[in-house]
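Please, structure for the following, as tokens.
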Amino acid sequence: MQDKAIKDQISEFMAQAFSGAVIAHDQDIFEAGFGNSMFAMQLVNFVEVTFGIEVDSDDLDIDNFRSIDRVAALVQRKRAVAAA
């Protein structure tokens, strides 16, 4: 799956979670007041189920989930490791 497709899926998930809000791919969702700890856990679950990866405790750094770009980068890294 290409980077754009990953970002599109994450963007769609966030738009649904945030009542249709348009989130820029580099926007910090926590700083903008969209995300909280409950949403962070929902996002982790979404990423695992949607992209077929396991988010390890080492990956649970909030910086990995601050923006669509960062979540997509995490997905790409996890997939690269799984493919190796």
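The chain has a mean pLDDT of 93. The radius of gyration is 12 Å.
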